[in-house]
Amino acid sequence: MRMYRSLHEGDILIIKSIDRLGRNYHEIQEEWKKITQKKKADIIVLDMPLLDTTKSKDLLGTFISDLVLQLLSFVAENERINIRERQASGIAAAKKRGVRFGRPPFHIPPDYEKYYLLWKNKKLPAKEAAEACGMPLWAFYKKGKTLDFH
Question: What is the pTM of this model?
Answer without folding.
Answer: 0.54
